[in-house]
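U., I forgot to send this yesterday:
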Amino acid sequence: MMNRLKGLWPMMLVLFAGAAQATDCSEIQWHQDVLAAYPGAAKACQAVVEIDGEERVEIVADFVRAHPGNKITVDIHQVDGTKERLTVKVDKDVKVNDQVELEVLPRGYEMTIYVPQDRFEVAKARSDVEYVVEEVVVAEVAYLPDTASDWYLLGALGAFMLALGSALGIWRHTRA
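Result:
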């Protein structure tokens, strides 16, 4: 019996080692740099999930705009229902649902971003809303014929002014 229990200890240690990681937003130990950049980080945490073997904090945000240098501005949803605007660094390979580039997203697009605890940087982004990039078809532009150019209008105005000047000259000579 004792020999069987000896074999279980390593398994139990492996099982409980995973439990030492944060499983709830209240257990997150935010890095000082994160809190310096975004003091409200704890209020933005929706859940703690494991992605690609690393612990990530799940945050819901509305897309505002993309900036050069792998940065985006988002309105982060706080747990209390308020929103806070923040510019966040993004990993260069991040796409929404691994398909859509962040630069093409419309303003107000709601997505879930995942950030590590030690730096406030978007490591992954997903959305339940399917974003379809529509193909824009450019219609053929119809050009007007040369008879509709501005030169004909200018010539007509010149002829009108010449006739008006002649009529005024004749009227002036008849009154005198």
